[in-house]
Design goal:
219 residues; alpha+beta; 8 helices; 34% helix
Length: 219
Amino acid sequence: MNQIQDYIHTDYKAIRLSEDLASVQDFFDEMGFSHFPVADDMQFVGSLNADDASTFDAEKSVADYRYILEQFHAKTTMSWFEVFEVATKNHATIVPVLDEQNQYIGYYELEDILLFFHDTPLIKEAGSLLVIQKGLQDYSLTQITQIVESNNGKLLGLFVSATSNNHIEITLKLALGPLNEIIQTFRRYNYEIVSQHLEDQYITNLKERSDYLDKYLNI
């Protein structure tokens, strides 16, 4: 199985501080990158934003605009999800990669990260999505896992899909299994079920009782 580190690119050398902006602007026009790393002797200096570079004086060098370089980067020890977070937070299609000594070694491309994400069980495997919600101080990832497994379910993955001052919303990807039992157990532990499910017997029963009450009141 591929690791995220297998996707580190070295096709293009980092931009040097001594490079003139005219050649850098041509590079961005040709490649379509949102950013690109700037490094001197493998020492990471920052990332140059393509939109910023397009407004700079073409006769000057990158060093003249060193103060505006962006400092986001990834480490070789980061997971694919952490790299994805860096890319999205900085609206970047390129993420520089540094080793444990903070030396520049290459870059990730967002497209590769998305492909890597697509091949994970969270996306690739068949299953059901279940969205639950609970108080920010009350939820437990260990408890969530135990609830799924105690009902003979299999958790393929989960992620925090929303947060507020008081609540956290978590999306679960479950292998096909006893979804209704899992839902009911989450309710017993005071988790709110945010997503809608045909298998949810609790909602079905409530609807049947509501329909019965409507008929009774209309007699």
